[in-house]
């Protein structure tokens, strides 16, 4: 299945952004990216960020932020100002997934955020790491235990690499959650927790064509690196070169 669109998660170039925000976004655009996944943290740096996004012809369909014990109105206002349609919680630490009661509490936070997001014309979503797949309750992953309790409008941004690191069959999980998955984080590598060993898409062990085929409602693939042993701009360019030919939108 082709990609509807392709974004870059700006966490990948966070060190460069800290040194030169406008210049880094210009380099991202020069690679060929037309979409970015931004964050509330970047937005909070002031108008420089939104101005640089627009100046480089970029759009940000997704914004990442915690959705637990935060000022949701401020976050959703930021999403509207950036033109995002979905706010994704990308990190609920491993220690908060130890019991089914924990998962129920997380679902409550996400469901409450979804109700408020609707007032702003937005959706919310959740992004996984490996621990939500490793942890299981009654034979089901903690991630799927969470999904069972989410409102139907809450979507998933699946990090395919972390699903594999968590010991699950990525294609099978995507098939089970096909009605929820709207976004995919696409990185590659040897499938382990060593972030520094991550590779551009298509250069590691993930079956990316099969992963894309398993996501019929996908809206965007998102290139991301947690770390990279080399020039990160070469890495994001290599992922772009591999994935962009699959984009049809």
Question: What is the structure about, briefly put?
Answer:
The chain has 249 residues and is an alpha/beta fold. The chain has twelve helices and ten strands.
What does this protein look like?
With 249 residues, this protein is α/β, with parallel strands linked by helices. It has helices at residues 14-19, 21-31, 40-43, 47-55, 72-82, 100-119, 131-134, 142-147, 160-165, 170-176, 208-213, 232-243, and strands at residues 6-9, 35-39, 59-64, 86-89, 123-127, 136-137, 140-141, 155-159, 181-186, 220-223. The strands form two sheets. It has an eight-stranded parallel beta barrel. It has a two-stranded antiparallel sheet with strand order 6-7. Helix 2 packs parallel to helix 4 (47-55). The longest helix has 20 residues, at 100-119. GO terms for molecular function: isomerase activity. It holds the Pfam family AP_endonuc_2. Residues 26-213 form the Xylose isomerase-like TIM barrel domain.
């Amino acid at each position: 299945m082709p990609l509807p669109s392709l974004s870059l998660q700006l966490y990948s170039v966070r060190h460069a952004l800290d040194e030169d925000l406008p210049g880094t976004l210009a380099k991202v655009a020069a690679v060929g990216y037309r979409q970015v996944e931004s964050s509330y943290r970047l937005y909070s740096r002031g108008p420089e960020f939104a101005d640089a996004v627009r100046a480089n012809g970029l759009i940000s369909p997704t914004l990442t932020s915690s959705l637990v014990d935060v000022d949701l109105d401020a976050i959703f206002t930021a999403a509207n100002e950036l033109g995002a349609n979905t706010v994704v919680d990308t990190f609920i630490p491993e220690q908060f997934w130890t019991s089914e009661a924990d998962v129920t509490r997380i679902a409550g936070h996400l469901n409450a955020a979804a109700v408020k997001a609707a007032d702003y014309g937005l959706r919310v979503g959740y992004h996984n790491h490996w621990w939500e797949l490793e942890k299981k309750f009654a034979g089901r992953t903690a991630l799927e235990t969470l999904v069972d309790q989410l409102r139907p409008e809450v979507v998933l941004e699946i990090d395919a690499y972390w699903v594999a690191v968590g010991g699950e069959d990525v294609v099978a999980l995507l098939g089970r959650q096909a009605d929820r998955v709207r976004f995919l984080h696409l990185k590659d590598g040897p499938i382990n927790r060593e972030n520094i060993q991550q590779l551009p898409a298509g250069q590691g062990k993930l079956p990316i064509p099969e992963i894309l085929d398993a996501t019929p409602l996908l809206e965007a693939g998102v290139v991301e690196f947690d770390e990279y042993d080399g020039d990160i701009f070469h890495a994001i360019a290599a992922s772009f070169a591999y994935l962009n030919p699959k984009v049809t939108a």
